[in-house]
Amino acid sequence: MKKNPESHPNERPFFMHPAVFVGASVLVGLLFGLQDYLNARRWGYRIGLLFISEMWGTQFLLWGIICWLLWRFLRPLIMEARFVSLVTRAIPLSVALSILEEMIWVLFFPGVPIDRPPMNYWHRLTFQLNAEFVGSLAIFWSAFLFFRGVVYYQKFREKETTAARLQMQLVQARLAALRMQLNPHFLFNAMNSISSLMRTDVNAADAMLEQLSSLLRITLERGEVQLIPLQKEVEFVEVYLAMQNLRYADRVKQTLFVEPELHDALVPALILQPLVENAYVHGLSKCPGNGELTIEIRRDGKRLRMSVVNSGNGLNGAGKEPARTGVGLANVRDRLRLHYGDRGSLTVREVGMGRVNVTIALPLQMNGSNTEETPRFEA
Predict the structure, then answer these.
(1) What pTM was computed for the model?
(2) N- to C-terminal Cα separation, the chain
(3) What is the rounded CA–CA span in Å between residue 15 and residue 62?
(4) d(Cα 61, Cα 139) in Å, to the nearest integer?
């Protein structure tokens, strides 16, 4: 499996490939050569462009090779150099490599300097060192500082990547914990309903137990998937509504409406069922007569709205949400925050005598499409 070249400080960035790095060095040398040629022409010297290009190109070819070898074999020195190692190792190395580069370069150009009488190798080397030694040191330390900057950048990116990975793992763990919290809560309420029916209608209790088995199988098949198509969530809720219809013996009028084009919208798994369960536990179960439950899922621009309205005893006349601190709504709020941050919301309000409306709003993303706003994990 390929790794990101910037994911670890020991990995090689693409521009440190020897062909790329040395090639870029030669290109820089040729640009200096062109500049030197233009200056020579302006000052009246007759020197060929090819000759000047060869001199500068060879010099930077040598420095490109030397600097790449520094990166390849002496990266720990570059990464960890402190004052003592700079003085005792890096500075002597810069002097030695500068002299070495000039020694090799002088071998390639026996006719330089061109405006002096012929000289032997050592005189030419001395002349070249007097003229270019400081420049060679500048090239070495420029490369040294550049490599050090690359290493620091890689370390910074590695820390960022690690932090992001840990943050994602934390969010996933928190979402998994919330799912684990929700499932036992749902199972406990369902088993209580079945237990109540066992005393009055054994056949209905048996049918309800089969439906509960179907819901548990669906939950297990989903595994730890966090976002699912809305259609699958609605199918889950429909089975749950059938269970409640058995328990309340058709005393609750159930209405479910979903805009057809939203069936492929992605929503957090088990995000709608807790709202329906909350409506039964805190509203419909307290109705003296028949109750009403309306579920509507509509598109609102680039947002998806899921609304659950139920009759019952309202918000107890105190303006408080009856289950704000309970498992159901609190769980949904936490999961919306982890998935969408401030872009997801859950609101509870009283819309009439004893009627409560619970609404979820979240960014709309269609399954397999990148044209809509994409949900993301946030801390």
Answers:
(1) 0.52
(2) 29
(3) 17
(4) 12
Tens-place pLDDT, residues 216-233: 776 666 666 778 899 988
Q: How is the chain split into domains, by residue range?
A: 14-163, 200-363
Q: Which of 236, 255, 239 is nearest to 207 (CA)?
A: 239
Residue 308 reports pLDDT greater than 90: yes
Q: Residue 4: its pLDDT value, please?
A: 44
Element at 71 (helix H, strand E)? helix 49-73
- pLDDT tens-digit profile of 184-207? 656 667 777 777 777 777 787 788
Residue with tokens 């390929």: 2
CATH of 200-363, one of 3.40.50.720, 3.60.21.10, 3.40.50.10330, 3.30.565.10: 3.30.565.10
Mark residue 286 as left, alpha or beta (left: phi above 0; alpha: psi -120 to 50; beta: remaining): alpha
Burial of 39 (0-12, 13-18, 19+ CB in 10 A): exposed
Among 150, 144, 146, residue whose Cα is nearest residue 8: 150
Question: If 0-12 CB within 10 Å is exposed, 13-18 middle and 19+ buried, where does residue 118 land?
Answer: exposed
| Residue spans of alpha helices (H) in 118-252 | 121-198, 202-222, 230-247
Structure tokens at 58: 């060879």
Helix axes 121-198, 273-282, angle to 10 degrees: 30
**pLDDT, tens digit, for every residue of 8-34?**
444 567 788 888 889 999 999 999 989
Phi then psi for residue 356, to 5 deg, are -125, 135
- Backbone angles phi and psi of 272, in degrees to 5: -95, -35
Q: Which residue has the higher pLDDT, 312 or 362?
A: 362
Residue 4 corresponds to which amino acid? N
Structure tokens that stand for 142 in this block: 């420029």
Span of 140-144, 159-163, 244-248 with lowest mean pLDDT: 159-163
Answer yes or no: are the C-beta atoms of 70 and 78 closer than 8 Å.
yes
And the tokens for 229?
Answer: 């198509």
**Residue 325 pLDDT class (50, 70, 90 cuts):** very low
Q: 113: cis peptide before it, omega within 30°?
A: yes
Q: Are 285 and 327 in contact (CB under 8 A)?
A: no
CA distances from 318 to 27, 233, 330, 336 (A): 78, 33, 19, 26
